[in-house]
Amino acid sequence: MPERAAKVAAFLRRAGRAGDGRTPLAGDAGLRRYERLKGPEGSFVLMDADPGLGEDVRPFLDVAARLAALGLRPPRIVAEDPVEGLLLLEDFGDDLLARVLEREPGREGALYARAADVLTRIDGAGAPRGLPRYAADEMADAAALAWRWYAGREDPCPWRDALRDRIAEVCGGPATMALRDFHAENLVVLGDGGLGLLDFQDAALAPAGYDLVSLVQDARRDVSPAVAEAAVARFAAATGRDRAGLDAALAVMGLQRAVRVLMICARLSLHFGRPRYVRLIPRVWGQVQRNLAHPAAAPLAPILDLPAPSEGVLTDLEARCGTVPTL
C-alpha cells in the first residue's frame, strides 16, 4: 500500500470508519482530495490535504471554529489529524447552491439574500485577530500574476502599483474577515434552510465587501443583475454602509478579483493540468470590463494591457495544458 494511502487507512481506523464505503468527490481548485464515506452511522466527508504537497488543514480548523462561534455553518469536525493533513467532516450533501439553482432558478433571489445575510454576520464580527492580511499590497501582487500566467509576460508593474494605490484610496475603512472564495459552488443549501460553508481555509482580513464581490461576480455562473443588485442593497442596508462608497469599492475589488481569476484559470491549465477552467475566462473577462466601466476603476483601464480572450488565446492555454512545471 502506498505511504499516503496507509496513513489515510490508519486515520480512518482510529476514527472508527475503516469499514465504510468510500466514493471520490469532486475536488476544489487546490490539491486537496475528498471522499464520501458511508456506513451504518451515516455519511461523512474525508478531506485529504497532504502536507507533502504543501497543504495545511490548520487554517481550515481555525476558520471553522471562528465561523461556528458566529452561529454560522461550517462542517462539524468529526475527527482530525492536523499533522498528517486529514480531517473527517460532517457531510452537507450535494445541494450546492449552484446545483439547486440549476433545478430551481426561481429561488435565486431568496438564496442570494440568505448568502448576503451570512456576509452581514461575518462583517459584524469586525476584524478578528490572528488572520493573515489581504490588503492593497497583497491584492495588487496577486492580480499582477495575470501578466505572467494569462498573458505570458513579466512586467505589469505600472498597473500593479496603480491598482495598489486605487485599492488603498477607494477600499479604505476597517478590514473584516473574508473567506476569499465565497460563491455558489462553496455554499450548500441545507435541509433546515441554512447555508453550509465550504472552502474557507484561505480566509484573511480584507476590505469590507470582498466576499460580496465574490458572490455576485461569480466566475462559474451568471448571477441575475437584479439578484446581484438586491444582494448588494441588502448588505449595505444591514451593515449601514454608504451605498455609493460601497459600489466604488466593489468595482475596484471586483476588478482586482477578476484579473486574479484570469491568472488562476490560466495557471490551473498550464501548471496543474486542468484545462476545463480555461472556458471560465470569457465570463471573467466580462467582469473585468464591467468593473472598468465604473468611475472608481476607470483610471486603470488605459494601462490594463491584457489580451482579450479570443478563441485563439483560449485554445492556446488549453493546448499548453500541464506544460509549465514550475510556479
What's a quick, concise take on this entry?
The protein has helices spanning about 5-15, 60-70, 95-105, 110-125, 135-150, 155-170, 210-215, 225-240, 245-270, 280-290, 310-320, and strands spanning about 20-25, 35-40, 40-50, 75-80, 85-90, 175-180, 185-190, 195, 205. With about 325 residues, the chain is α+β, with helices and mostly antiparallel strands. The strands form three sheets. A five-stranded antiparallel beta sheet has the order 1-2-3-5-4, with helices on one face. It has a two-stranded antiparallel sheet with strand order 6-9.
Can you tell me about this structure?
By secondary structure, the chain is α+β, with helices and mostly antiparallel strands. It folds into two domains: 3-90, Phosphorylase Kinase, domain 1 (2-Layer Sandwich); 97-319, Aminoglycoside phosphotransferase (APH), C-terminal lobe (Aminoglycoside 3'-phosphotransferase, Chain: A, domain 2), CATH 3.90.1200.10. It is built from eleven helices and nine strands. It has helices at 3-14, 58-69, 97-103, 108-124, 136-149, 157-170, 210-216, 225-239, 243-270, 281-292, 311-319, and strands at residues 21-25, 33-39, 42-48, 77-81, 86-90, 175-178, 187-189, 195-197, 204-207. The strands form three sheets. A five-stranded antiparallel sheet has the order 1-2-3-5-4, covered by helices on one side. It has a two-stranded antiparallel sheet with strand order 6-9. A two-stranded antiparallel ribbon has the order 7-8. A hairpin with a 2-residue loop joins strand 2 and strand 3. The longest helix has 28 residues, at 243-270. It comes from Hasllibacter halocynthiae. InterPro entries: Aminoglycoside_PTrfase (IPR002575), Kinase-like_dom_sf (IPR011009). Residues 23-243 form the Aminoglycoside phosphotransferase domain. This is Aminoglycoside phosphotransferase domain-containing protein.
